Amino acid sequence: MNLVALELFFVGLLGLASLAIVFTSGVVVWNLFRGQR
After folding, report:
1. Against a cut of 0.70, is the pTM above it?
2. Quick one: how far is CA 8 from the chain centroid?
């Protein structure tokens, strides 16, 4: 397995993880603001 494919795999994994973190924090903030009304 060459190094470029491995690097692309880990960069994609990092992107997926950061997307999941942004989505989760967005849902939490949305629920907090919705609960205040």
Report:
1. no
2. 17
